[in-house]
Prior knowledge:
This protein is mainly alpha-helical. It has helices at 6-22, 32-58, 62-82, 116-136, 145-153, 159-170. The two termini are 17 Å apart.
Amino acid sequence: MWNIGAEGQLIVGALAGGVVALQASPEASQLYMIWVILAAMVGGALYAGIVAWLKDKCNANEILVSLMLVYIAELFLSWAVQSPLRDPQGLGFPQSPMFEMAATLPIMIPGTRMHWVGLSFALPCSASGSSCRRCLSVSRCAFPAWRLRQLLTRASPIEPLFILCCFFPVL
């Protein structure tokens, strides 16, 4: 299954999380963020489920369907911030009201948008990416890259392990 339309799932997930975040009261605790994250995950997953359902029931091409659903998600987001989610004090700009502090991630460095959750994902990903680049260069690796490519072209049993350990963390 191909997923070319991940951008649409990201948009719908962000929109679902935003709707839940707008419902937060000023007295809500920081644990309210869990509901926002869950809503975003469910929204994106349900939007991906449309592609899977169309592939299963109608034998639709998932590449085309997921790509076209990106445009529908963009139009839906545009409609949402111009109609039901529009900020009354937004001076006519298509934007939603600001979220309460309970519905936002805590900022790590004041004046920036860096938060602890983003940093906890960025550091392991960058570390795994640099180790993969180091391993794929012929000069630094005990196991030469040309030999690795040769093994992978034969559909060896290490191919799934290599893809899981090296390429997915980098992506």
